[in-house]
Amino acid sequence: MKRIILLCFTVLAAMGGFAQPYDTLEVHFGKNTSVLSKTTSDFIDRMILKGVLAPPKKLMLLGYADYLGNKVHNDPLSEARAKTIKDYLVKSGFNPKDITACIGKGKINRTEVDSDGFAADRKVQIIFDHIPVKPTPTVIDVDKLKVNETLRLNNIFFVGGTSTILPDSQPELDNLLHVMQASKTLIIKIEGHICCMGPKEGLDDNNLSGRRAKAVYDFLISNGISARRLYYEGVGNMNPVVRADSTEEDHIKNRRVEIRVISK
């Protein structure tokens, strides 16, 4: 008899059914400016309209600059960018008391540089705890899984920029554990993915993708799954869902954890 396993995936109807791990949003600026573009303001408006950004969420705003210019230039520029986003959010209905930090972090160092800078680093991160989610179970027929096939774990949430798993990930983790417990011979590799982390494919500052994959691996090990059945790997941004990830929605799709079937 076939084994049917329930593996929870988040369904957010407002985002077209794609599960969105919104712990961090990024908005971007033009070169050498802290002026909000219409593209950025429209994105923030959409996030507010969809409830991704909505009072009374507690927010931290971290501004950055790329490697062009010196510290005297980049530190105030990054702070001005964070303040621009704060002012826009307050104008949009946020209580200033709910914005717990508004900080300029200066430039982001890059090992490979050119005279045009690195556009993805001209940004502000909007960081909040997490969105409470209600997982919707999806039926996974283990017998139909193919070797080398991957499954995306859409309901794995991390604190922005870290490998710390948020509490709302527990249903997804528990269901993955249930899959491994019910399918005694299943061997998997846990693969961590990131978005837009560097000027070339595969760059992953501080191996964030690997550390996130290992966090899931450690959970399974701590709950009795043999290490002989588990592998983990961080693949950086080498296998994006969206190749030209120019919007935050694209970035979110590319930030993910997947499991790959090694053998059954």
Question: Which key features would you list for this structure?
Answer:
60s Ribosomal Protein L30, Chain: A, 2 domains, four-stranded mixed β-sheet, disordered N terminus
Range of strand content: 15-25%
Shape: elongated
Number of helices: 5
The run of helices and strands is EEHEHEEEEHEHEHE
Q: Are there runs of 5+ residues with pLDDT below 50, and where?
A: 1-22, 197-202
- Share of helix among residues? 25-40%
Radius of gyration (CA) equals 20 Å
| Distance, first to last CA | 16 Å
Count of DSSP E strands? Answer: 10
Descriptive report:
The chain is α+β, with helices and mostly antiparallel strands and 264 residues long. It is built from 5 helices and 10 strands, in the order E-E-H-E-H-E-E-E-E-H-E-H-E-H-E. 36% of the residues are buried.
Write the layout of secondary structure elements.
Blueprint: E1 4-9, E2 24-28, H1 38-49, E3 59-65, H2 71-91, E4 99-107, E5 123-128, E6 136-141, E7 150-153, H3 170-182, E8 187-193, H4 208-222, E9 230-234, H5 248-254, E10 256-263
Parallel strand pairs: 3-4, 8-9
Antiparallel strand pairs: 1-6, 2-5, 3-5, 7-10, 8-10
